[in-house]
Design goal:
One of its GO terms (cellular component) is DNA polymerase III complex. It contains 6 helices and 26 strands. It is of the alpha+beta class and 376 residues long. It has a 14-stranded antiparallel beta sheet. A 12-stranded antiparallel beta sheet has the order 15-11-12-13-26-25-24-19-22-21-20-23.
């Protein structure tokens, strides 16, 4: 191999691919990045049997070859190189990286022992990169982080024609987001449960591209792979087995009270009041016409009270929430005005952005949050 590539281009490509490498690889070769130079292109690939990543960049290729080198070491080296073109060449079992006056020599890993990357499934449809990234970030916050319950660590992707619905839950809240996309076939129908962390990392990395292509293999949850491609990058990941609870019946459609509050003052008030909320203790919200009172703490310890303006339709309501869950929902609604809808103080509340005047209900993003029962 003998190639020449721009430093910034190489550093970004190596850093992105190396992010998905396992911290404790089951076999040594999985700690490697596969570099393949051919036809004026350098391709970098990583794989850990669950997630595969591949990116292609332009390069001046004098000699074509494929080599496997330590991914994290190469990423550290590329990050520290001066802003000069980088030359990479091979001689026997060594790879030499030269940039300006800097010169590094790395040992190669055995390419023949590296597993074949999974094939990208056939494209199912495309969505603008920014829309996809925003939707995933809104929903992934509600996914569980307990690996003993793997189903809850996933984001459910449901495709029906030109509509994609993302959903996740950790049993304490449920986030759902719908968006339109361009399916390859108008009658496309599929369901997949994708690891939330992988999906979030992938969506962020592809947000710079004009569009993201989704590719599903298998027709049911837990079958096969899902692939994402955009901006010269490609990721595949195995799907989780199982499915989320039937969530549509959990979302109430009729409410006894609806409160409307400016999001920014609401967020700041929750943050301040939560300072005295000890671990796992809630923030109490009391809604009356024209005012919301927030309280936290107890008479035996520090206490905080704050009031903010709020419009209330319906009955007065007092309810308590985990402040972290409430703040994550408020940050995800992406609206200057938040709307909280209640059936009672002991049942889940629906959080969303206030819909536009000509829309009765804003269904694009919904965040259902369980209240915390107060003793006494």
């Amino acid at each position: 191999m003998k190639i020449r590539v721009e430093r910034d281009v190489l550093a970004e490509a190596v850093a992105w691919t190396a992010k998905s490498l396992p911290a404790r690889p089951p076999v040594p070769v999985l700690a490697g990045l596969l570099l393949k130079a051919e036809d004026g292109t350098l391709s970098l690939s990583g794989f850990d049997y669950e997630v595969s990543s591949r990116v292609s960049v332009e390069a001046e290729v004098e000699e074509e070859d494929t080599v496997l080198v330590s991914g994290r070491l190469l990423a550290d080296i590329c990050r520290s190189l001066p802003n000069r073109p980088v030359e990479i060449s091979t001689e026997g079992v060594r790879v030499t990286v030269v940039c300006g006056s800097s010169r590094f020599t790395l040992h190669t890993l055995p390419v023949e022992e590296y597993p074949a990357l999974p094939e990208m499934p056939t494209a199912t449809g495309t969505v603008p990169g920014e829309v996809f990234a925003a939707a995933v970030s809104q929903v992934a916050i509600a996914a569980g982080r307990d690996d003993t319950l793997p189903v809850l660590t996933g984001v459910r992707i449901e495709i029906e024609g030109d509509t994609v619905t993302l959903a996740s839950t950790d049993r304490y809240r449920f986030a759902v987001r719908e968006f339109l996309w361009k399916p390859e076939a108008p009658d496309t129908s599929a369901v997949a449960l994708v690891p939330a962390k992988t999906l979030l990392d992938t969506a962020k990395s592809l947000s710079g591209g004009e569009s993201v292509s989704l590719a599903l293999s298998g027709s049911g949850t837990g079958e096969g792979l899902i692939g994402f491609e955009g901006a010269g990058r490609r990721t595949t990941t195995r799907l989780l087995e199982g499915d989320l609870p039937k969530y549509r019946t959990l979302f109430p459609t009729e409410f006894n009270s609806v409160a409307v509050i400016e999001t920014a003052p609401f967020v700041e008030a929750v943050k301040r009041v939560a300072l005295v909320a000890e671990r796992n203790t809630p923030v109490r919200l009391s809604f009356e016409q024209g005012v919301l009172t927030l309280e936290a703490g107890s008479s035996d310890d520090a206490q905080a009270v704050e009031r903010v303006d709020a419009d209330l339709e319906g009955e007065d309501v007092s309810i308590a929430f985990n402040p972290g869950f409430l703040l994550e929902g408020l940050s995800a609604i992406d609206s200057a005005v938040a709307q909280l809808s209640f059936t009672s103080s002991t049942k889940p509340a629906l959080l969303g952005g206030k819909p536009a005047k000509d829309v009765e209900v804003d269904t694009a993003y919904k965040y259902l949050i369980m209240p915390v029962r107060l003793s006494g």
